[in-house]
Amino acid sequence: MLLINPKFKESFWSFRWALxxxxxxxxxxxxxxxxxxxxxxxxxxxxxxxxxxxxxxIPLDPDVDIVGICGMAIQFPRQRALIQHYKTVGRLVxxxxxxxxxxxxxxxxxxxxxxxxxxxxxxxxFCADYTNGHTDSLYHETGEVNLxxxxxxxxxxxxxxxxxxxxxxxxxxxxxQCDFCDIIVMFGRRPRTKNPEQIGRELDELRAARxxxxxxxxxxxxxxxxxxxxxxxxxxxxxxxxxxxxQFGVQASVNLADDxxxxxxxxxxxxxWVFIGIESPDAESLAEANKRQxxxxxxxxxxxxxxxxxxDVFGGFIIGFDNDTVEVFDKQYDFIVRSGxxxxxxxxxxxxxxxxxxxRLDAEGRLVPYARADDNTQVTTNFVxxxxxxxxxxxxxxxxxxxxxxxxxIAERIIxxxxxxxxxxxxAHYRFLESLGILKxxxxxxVLAGGHTRIYHVAxxxxxxxxxxxxxxxxxxxxxxxLARYVETRLTTQPGCTPARTSIERLKQxxxxxxxxxxxxxxxxxxxxxxxxxxxxxxxxxxxxxxQLAALARSGTNLRIxxxxxxxxxxxxxxxxxxxxSKYGDRITLSVHEVMWPFLRIDITKFHLALYxxxxxx
Length: 618
Ligand code: SF4
Prior knowledge:
Number of helices: 21
Structural class: alpha/beta
Number of strands: 19
Low-confidence stretches: 613-618
Strand content: 5-15%
Strand order of the largest sheet: 2-1-3-4-5-6
Bound molecules: iron/sulfur cluster
């Protein structure tokens, strides 16, 4: 059996610039924990492999009986393409993951089998049915799983060294009722937890794999406080015994800041950062969203208190509540700058299916038919806003990001954070030589590349900060610059970047000399430029072509490059071309015929890979 995690589209969450330019050898942020858990629930004698398309190429025609493909909502387009592909090549395809759990009906008729909901009881049933020669089309968990029954994930099947951190899960469910949230729709409002010894066994595995940086993926780590405290006491003891081996990060509600016992335990267990859904500085917007836990105290003071306890804060922010008018952009900007939050994930409110928000907007007739409800990283949303027009919303959203990612504003936020944060809860999680390498690449590719202005701003953030938190200053610069690069190159109100007319003309002229008409085309909706490299043979010409394609990709144009069985380009030239383009790989789709693969030596995970089925033939 092959289990696949489909490639994510590039977004704020990818931190692509940081992965490519600073954190050498890392290809993605989080490994697919769900697939490792599925593998652990599979009969021992089955031969199971996990391939994460974000860190390695997927085999297009694997020697397996079953292909299992997971996915969150944002992965759905790729998950769907993979399902179709593996069905075309005759495998039994099983779809699962959080989107299939929320909306199993979307997968009906698409995958052979759909596994919806928590897997601990239904996955073994599927495996038993498969062994007995008859599987159902849907395995749906409608009850709740006791997490004591959740096995230690098969971390050994993941390439852990390709990720910046490794995920663990302690609990499922959250007691709150934010109206846009699909977590409580899937996991319910009664938090269920693993016991501390289970987490200890998982950490033993990760220690053996030399992992240091661990992220608890629970949507609210403090949903059941007594059990969280018991876990943290256990972790404090574990860390002491193992020389404070791990640095932890969690997601929690903001009322964490009200509980001093909890904050102390965070320090003792080496929890160094927390992601908090702040959503809005506007009390009326929070009340509208039923985010009552954020209304009880002062949000800014809560963030500052966490800093004073040595805990870094990442924040989620939402724009588009009915109460929001165009003034919300300035309000969010002011709050984010004053709070010092660098990893500030600002997204447009999206009505996710089956949430109270979705039902309300549906009843009000405000849902936009055919708009994507599975991607909150876009510059548009799936409903008609109330306090501003959709256009004002998109333009204000992009502008807010542009303002937040200027060097001066990155610096201001760091200074506003380190005024409060004088020490860190956790020790550094990189080894000495690793840290040195990161520092060197940060200076070369980040600081110096930004010229005098950036050198000045980096210097002043260091000057204003305690030496003990310089690692936070540098980490914030790396995150800030990664977000800035994303905003600069990808965040636009246009559907795709309009390719420069002159570049297209030049490209056509070059190709016209050797390729018949029609092999270069521009899609007028997406502005994607498609070219086929079927018969480009001349070296001089190929170098010119490489330059033109790199210029187009650099300017933000989406490209589709087809390498089919007729291609007679020398493999060295192809590899040169693809290496050069890999920097812009997230906007390049490759269609590669299987006969070409043995000749390619490129990192295919940097590109989108078109699958060679009829539906996807360029
Ligand atoms: S606190 Fe977070 S996980 Fe809990 S209901 Fe609100 S958005 Fe969902």
